[in-house]
Design a protein that fits this description.
single chain; alpha/beta; seven-stranded parallel sheet; 11 helices
């Protein structure tokens, strides 16, 4: 009997890499997307023959379709057990000054890319029984200053996931969201490379962005271990009745319950003061 097969996007590092490692150790064959052939070879050497690299960018529709044909051939009539839409980027900056090209790229990768990949691989999923897992974020429910692009893309992903879950009742395919808080992954390093404070140093947001930089550094240091997400992915793939959404905040009180349920104006003031967006009055 062949190992059940799962496709995961964005497997060169971070959540995608660790999920691939964890699922392979749990008896799965993983098809993993990466943008660079060198990364594909590296990950295959590290994770073994049960990792099958697919070289495509989630914004490249033609490459996605070609990858789907490749997977179909390798499956030899067997279905995919699951699809994990993990690939993503984080764009930050004040919306007042944000280049629209940056905003478009954020949505192309985090939202439209998910739709493109899912459309291409949906025919290969087990019907019934296949599962689509979309990696969202705490930012898919809570929007903080200067993360409008990222939060917007994840809010949109949450809505699309809910709509698709209900549409796919017809096929017996489930759609599940995992929404983690900050995780110890290279996404923080990649975000820091953009040096957001310096890009907007001539705007009124300079001090607030510097304060944000300190918060991001702290989040990178105190993020949850990536294996927590991998374990949740496996759970979502295997339990008989999975939740529609697995919330994994860093702090249930300050990072989830308070922002969601306290009055919005109160949260505005708390966040505004912490980021020097308002005075102490």
């Amino acid at each position: 009997m062949t190992n059940p097969s799962v496709l995961i996007t964005g497997t060169s590092s971070g959540i995608g890499y660790d999920a691939s490692r964890y699922l392979i150790a749990s008896g799965y064959r993983v098809f993993g997307s990466l943008r660079k052939a060198a990364d594909g070879e590296r990950v295959r050497q590290e994770l073994g023959e049960q990792f099958n690299p697919l070289i495509f960018d989630v914004t490249d529709e033609a490459a996605i379709r070609q990858a789907a044909e490749t997977v179909k051939e390798r499956l030899k009539g067997q279905p995919l057990h699951g699809l994990v839409n993990n690939a993503g980027i984080a764009v930050a900056g004040p919306l007042e000054h944000l280049p629209l090209a940056d905003l478009r790229q954020q949505f192309e990768v985090n939202t439209i890319g998910v739709v493109g990949v899912t459309q291409a691989f949906l025919p290969l999923l087990a019907q019934p029984g296949g599962r689509i897992i979309n990696i969202s974020s705490v930012s898919g429910k809570i929007a903080f200053p200067f993360f409008g692009p990222y939060a917007g893309s994840k809010f949109a992903l949450e809505a699309i996931s809910a709509s698709w879950r209900r549409e796919l009742l017809l096929r017996g395919i489930d759609v599940i969201i995992i929404g983690p808080g900050s995780v110890k992954t290279p996404i923080w390093e990649k975000a820091a490379e953009h040096n957001v404070p310096s890009r907007y140093q001539d705007t009124i947001y300079r001090e607030a962005l510097e304060a944000l930089g300190e918060t991001v550094t702290q989040s990178a240091a105190s993020g949850m271990p990536v294996e927590i997400i991998s374990k949740t992915i496996l759970k979502a793939l295997t339990v008989k009745r999975p939740k529609t959404r697995y919330a994994l905040p860093n702090s249930w009180l300050s990072g989830w319950l308070a922002p969601l349920y306290l009055p919005a104006r109160l949260i505005d003031r708390v966040v505004g003061k912490s980021l020097k967006l308002i005075n102490g009055q």
